[in-house]
Structures are given as structure tokens and as C-alpha cells.
Amino acid sequence: MLAIECVDIVFSSISPPPKMTVSEWADSYRQLSPESSSESGQWKTDRAPHQRGMMDAVSERGIHTIVSMISSQVGKTEGLLNVLGYHIDYDPAPVMAVQPTLKMAEAFSKDRLDPMIRDTPNLTVKVNGKESTIYHKKFLGGHVTMAGANSPASLASRPIRIVLAD
């Protein structure tokens, strides 16, 4: 093997992954779970194109705050799950997912997040089941912490890069 070939191999192995938006990640990897979706299988942003802008704003440089004022039952929570999956798999970071109450955070974790992790292979291999709990999912480079807006203790004293509120 020539020295130049060795250098190419080394550089290709340490190069950052290509830029990917949240919707591109979801279209490539996200699996919809049968218990949390009317139609299980591969996520397709084209089936809900109104979500593309909201999801992709999260992965856009220079955007620090996103506020969406939309009606209920239009897929906002699924979009937030795609953002969580993106940060578990592609851009690891400490993330907090805030629900109105701790009880709702528990239900979100059990009914929505856990099935997505189970059914999306890229997430299954990254989330450490032994170190994860209902309120805290651990993965290399970060974690997802579930919190309740009604619980100051669940919101305090945490270094968080991404905060999602549903």
C-alpha cells in the first residue's frame, strides 16, 4: 500500500460526516412505531411537508430559538421526536424534552420515545439501555432528559444544549 493510500484512509476515517438536516435524517433512518402511529414504517417528510421547515430550522447554523404556534394533531410531536433522534444519532448533545407535567413526561418517554428508539436501528445501537431510565436516556456524547414544566427540580442544574417543549 502506498503512503498516499494510507493517508487517504486515515483522513476519510476522521472526516466529519456530511451535513444533514433533521428532515434528511428522518427520511433516511426514522421508523414509525406501530403503537404510536397510524401507519408504521419508514418516516417520509413528504407526507407532512409543513413539518420540514420546523425540523430543519433546528439543524440550521445561527438559529437559537424556534417557536411554533400550530394546531394540535398535526405532527408536532413526531417532528420533535425526529429532532431527538437526530441529536442521539447524528449530532450528539445533552437534550431536555419538557412536557407540561412529570406524569406526561413519563408517558412521552414510555409511549413515544422508547418505541422510536426500539424501532429505529440507528438509535437502538446508540442508546445505552443499562444506564437509561424512564426520565433519562444516555448515549455517547449526550443524553435526553425528560422533565415536567410543573417540576422546578426536574428543570434545574443541568447542562443542556437543546431544549424541546411540547
From TrEMBL:
Provide the Phage terminase large subunit GpA ATPase domain boundaries: 37-166
InterPro entries found in the cross-reference section: GpA_ATPase (IPR046453), P-loop_NTPase (IPR027417)
Compositionally biased intervals (Polar residues): 31-43
Chain segments carrying region Disordered:
31-51
Q: Tell me where on the tree of life, at the top rank, the source sits.
A: Bacteria
**Coiled-coil intervals:** none
Q: Which GO terms describe its molecular function?
A: ATP hydrolysis activity
The protein, known as: Phage terminase large subunit (GpA)
- Organism of this sequence: Pseudobacteriovorax antillogorgiicola
